[in-house]
Amino acid sequence: MTTATPTGRPPVDLRSPAQLLAALPYLIGFRPANSVVLLGHRAPAGDRLGLVLRGEIPRREDQAHQARALAPRFALAPHTGVTLVVIGGRRRPGSPPPHAGFVELLDDALGEFGLPVLHAMWVADISEGAPWGCYADPDCGGELPDPRSTVVAAVATGGGTVAFDSRDELEMLLAPRSPEALARRAEALARQPSSPWPEATRVSEAASVIRAAFEHQVRGSGPPTDEEAVLLASALKLPEIRDMCLGMAVPPHTPAAREAERLWLTLVQELPAPARAEAAALLGYTAFMRGDGTFAGMALDNALAAKPDHVLAGLLRTVLSHGMPPGQLLGLALTADPTGLSGFGLAPPDFGEPGVGLPLGVACGRSEAR
Predict the structure, then answer these.
(1) Which tens digit of pLDDT belongs to each residue from 250-292?
(2) Are 76 and 53 in contact (CB under 8 A)?
(3) Torsion angle of alpha carbons 337, 340, 342, 343, nearest 10°?
């Protein structure tokens, strides 16, 4: 997973170990538990946050396999090293942090790709007062501050980002609002001809449907009616409309991009399979461009569950799995709609490079309690 500082906001300093640990829910979208988190130091200087990956702490017999699976992801993009964080377990007095053997396996696996482990930390839980420590220095440690009080939390909250208590809670955002409504809409879509609009005007009329949906979204008018949902599903099937919708993802963190993401999320909740795959793929791309790889992956998995052969969702899922930074996919949005969303009657935005890295330079030391 990659992460980004909202454009135009001051950079967030993650050089304090306690601040970094407390910031993890805002970096990956939810509060991790029983997890290992790997944070890449972006080349060339290594003082910026690059790829961020989270995995479950596996059973002892599976730890070597997990280490070998995670390490290559950091070799696909330029990194100078990795910081490791283990979350979970209980530390016995006078003993090293738990899961030290797993940390050694990760160190070995990363070393095969020329990537040193620059810092390895453990924390019992991501909550105020939780004990944390370092694997290499027994004098490094302390207690976590309140995660909600960190600078990262303030920046994330100001940008509209919410950190959920668990991965399951985040994934529930994608659940259907009304299974009964989905069944009605699936039946209506099955009865509908290939396009509800004449060939000569289908793109302009479909664009009008999307524009009206954005207006309803801004006004908070509630979920679409069955008729509106069917028309939206038909509009998103058109390649020209999908391309213009991709352009809504940039610049990330702007009001237009946030409204687009809310609309795609609404449609994931309101459209039946396979129609919802289009909205889910757009949601995945938009979340990825603002640096939320966790939610992007969930959305793309949702798209592929609705339509396993969805080309865009499949390509984006592969890109995400390989750890490509968002900036390398900026051209997808710009090429898709070089006119700046004129098809939706929106003013062309000033484009900026997404994926600006956070300062990262963790050093051992004893943290002040809270």
Answers:
(1) 777 778 888 899 999 999 999 999 999 999 999 999 988 887 8
(2) no
(3) 30
Residues 81 and 174 in one domain: no
Domains in the chain: how many in total?
Answer: 2
The answer to whether residue 180 sits within a structural domain is yes
Give which of 77, 124, 130, 83 is closest to 103, Cα–Cα.
83
Helix (H) or strand (E) holding 161: none
Task: Yes or no: say if 52 and 39 are a contact pair by the CB < 8 Å rule.
Answer: yes
Peptide bond into 44 cis (omega under 30): yes
- Residue 15: CB atoms within 10 A of its CB come to 13
Q: Give residues with Cβ within 8 angstroms of 292, minimum separation 6.
A: 1, 3, 29, 161
pLDDT of residue 12: 45
139 and 282 both lie in a single domain: no
Phi first, then psi: give them for residue 98, nearest 5 degrees.
-70, 165
Do residues 178 and 278 share a domain? yes
DSSP-derived secondary structure letter, 84: E
Distance, in Å, from the CA atom of 120 to the CA atom of 104, rounded to the nearest integer, reads 10
**140 and 176 part of one domain:** no
Spans in the chain with pLDDT lower than 70? 1-15, 149-164, 323, 331, 333-370
Query: Are 188 and 305 members of one domain?
Result: yes
Residue bearing tokens 């237009």: 256
The answer to whether 84 touches 73, Cβ cutoff 8 Å, is no
Range of the domain at 27: 17-164
Give the pLDDT score at 217: 84
Q: Are residues 52 and 125 in the same domain?
A: yes
Query: Closest Cα to residue 365, out of 41, 99, 138, 86?
Result: 138
